Amino acid sequence: MKSKINWTAFSKKEPEERIAMLSEKMLLSSANQDYLKKQALLPLDVANQMTENVIGRLALPFSLVPNVNINGDYYQVPFVTEEPSVVAAASYASKIIDKSGGFKTKLQNRQMIGQVALYHCDDLVKSKMAIKEAEKLLLDIANQAYPSIVKRGGGAKSLWTEEKDEFLIVYLSVDTQEAMGANMLNTMLEAISSELEKIAHADSLMAILSNYATESLVTATCEVRLNYLSRNKEEAKILAKKIELASKLAQVDIYRATTHNKGILNGIDAIVLTTGNDWRAIESACHAFACKDGQYRGLSQWQFNTKTQKLEGQLTLPMPIATKGGSIGLNPSVQIAHDCLGNPKAKELAQIIVAMGLAQNFAALKALTNQGIQAGHMKLQAKSLALLAGAQHAELPLLMKQLIKSKPMNLETAKSLLESIRNEN
Ligand code: HMG
Fold first, then answer.
1. Residues 133, 196: contact at Cβ < 8 Å?
2. Which of 17, 66, 306, 337 is positioned for an S-S bond with 13, CB 3.0–4.6 A?
């Protein structure tokens, strides 16, 4: 059981104070505490092992969303994002949703799918039957190609075929345990492809994992009590109904659906990235899932339940993430992220990630249907603009205060306000 932590005024502290609070709450190993205190970056030699033609490292802000209640456990969720207001919005939503009972999550399955695309098939029906009859042999070949995953309790589990145009596509489903499984799948698929060519009397065009991870679905749900939408009961009801309408709008209009889903992915990417996972894979999986019935739609649904008088949210996403493999063990900042979360297994991490997508979506919809996005977002963006305009630390509070009141709030305005402040002093 992970308990709630009393982080008094966490958002108002300086980074050094937040690190001290983390150490005090024993969320980090001593090596990771030292690492954070030194503010060291990914060592260059490690970066050079991770990819090619390396000349440096790119740093991004590493933040924490405190006390996210998921199935009764409280998580301190690491977020990496360059965008102002994303962390504030996730914290805000998580706080309200905690007070309303927390997130509930459910993992529907966790297997990865790969495919071998066959073509030049003389007789598709005969080829399909031959592959069906050889299913056990093919699964054995796949598992022999990657025995370590079988020892860990995973491995190739099932195989099926589908005809699409001139292709006979063979799909392989693999239990990848703690890994995302790209190398595992690709090794297994390449191992079975020559046998498939023989069995099906066909040629193999390619053998590759699919990022459309429909066997790694996770659902997060939550309820929001009306009193957290507004102190005024009638206003709260109107807002709950507007959030329901906003969810409907994202089902019927692709322009809105794309932005709606971008907001969800603000939360998803921030944790996928910091836990060392492949965010391009998750992005492509989520966008493909958004058009599973042929039209691109909003990924979440919100309803105002008139019986319970609560706003109910739901989000289902493919979430094939890993806690082992890839660069996860190499990057010390990624280790810190896993430490902060209490080193969850892949299935647990997938559920935390989807809950953060729903949190982010709730904050955005509440702002959009209420005071508008600019009020909260721009308040936090003021700091970025002030820094970009060249403000020194001491000049920030006054410049930000003036900037929030100014229209248009942009870099030009920030520069001219900074000039006036300097001229007055
Ligand atoms: P507020 O009501 O002014 O916040 O909302 P508050 O000052 O009363 O603080 C309430 C809580 O919010 C705090 O509790 C924090 O948890 C959190 P406390 O710690 O004080 O007990 N919070 C913060 N946490 C860290 N640093 C901060 C901070 N401020 C508040 N500086 C807020 C302000 C920004 C939260 C609200 O207006 C909001 O949620 N806005 C939505 C912002 C958003 O969605 N941003 C994402 C980027 S916009 C985008 O790209 C996506 C979009 O297009 C998606 C879509 O269209 O669907 C919008």
1. no
2. 17
Pocket test for ligand 1, best of 62, 65, 92, 239 (most atoms within 8 A of CB): 92
Residue 245 and residue 298: Cα distance in Å, rounded?
12
The residue whose CB lies within 8 Å of the most ligand 1 atoms, and thus the one to mutate among 82, 91, 302, 356, is 91
Closest C-alpha to ligand 1, atom 21? 9
pLDDT one-digit tens code per residue, 135-159: 999 999 999 999 999 999 999 999 9
**pTM for the model:** 0.92
Going from the Cα of 39 to the center of ligand 1, the distance in angstroms, rounded, reads 27
Distance CA 138, CA 231 (A): 62
CATH 3.90.770.10 describes domain 10-105+217-370: yes
The finding on whether 259 has its CB within 6 A of some atom of ligand 1 is yes
Protein residue with least CA distance to atom 8, ligand 1:
92
What is the per-residue pLDDT for 210? 97
Assess whether the C-beta atom of 273 lies below 6 angstroms from ligand 1.
Answer: no
Give pLDDT, residue 375: 73
**Domain edges within the chain:** 10-105+217-370, 112-210, 375-424
Hey, what CATH topology would domain 112-210 get?
Alpha-Beta Plaits (3.30.70)
CATH number of 375-424: 1.10.8.660
List, by residue number, the catalytic residues. 83, 262, 278, 377
Q: Extract the residue ranges of the chain whose pLDDT is less than 50.
A: none
Q: Which residue owns the Cα nearest ligand 1 atom 54?
A: 263
Q: Which atom of ligand 1 is nearest to the CA of 95?
A: 16
